[in-house]
Write the structure tokens for this entry.
Amino acid sequence: ETGVTQTPRHLVMGMTNKKSLKCEQHLGHNAMYWYKQSAKKPLELMFVYSLEERVENNSVPSRFSPECPNSSHLFLHLHTLQPEDSALYLCASSHEGGAAMGEQYFGPGTRLTVT
Amino acid sequence: RKEVEQDPGPFNVPEGATVAFNCTYSNSASQSFFWYRQDCRKEPKLLMSVYSSGNEDGRFTAQLNRASQYISLLIRDSKLSDSATYLCVVNRGDKIIFGKGTRLHILP
């Protein structure tokens, strides 16, 4: 399936590195999301973009910086991460507003390891 | 009380059996409800929406009980391929809340 793609699929980075995660959706949606999934924890919503505007930031540390240049692309810029940031980072998209927000389509995720 | 609660399981169920999961939610203003499925080391995938009148898709039946604030998922004639984690999702209107998921193992 190529509805929502994410690159890279795996990333190992040191604590002083800067890297970016990329997400692209081909579904014509206008809302995009970043989630973090750690072992044995529920999905944690990090950021929501609706119509290219950030509408939610769930107290995410500033070392994570999202960017949404258009409705099809979403980036997560990473800088000076900590080992506890190692997790699966999932991007999702949906139509914006109302019940449609619950029908999200996820990318395969980027498995991030911070050393 | 957590906004969305699920029994983490695991539920170990023989192939062919019927299994049911419940999910409770705390915000009575929640608007819509969904079940997702997540296979090991894969992304979550939408399984079905949960309508007020209940809905069925093949072997899967989802029901909503607004008075008691829970949703349920029933799987009939379970298959080995049904082994996964099932996530309950609640749309509160202003945000989406994912449950921690219930792990299901179908045993041959």
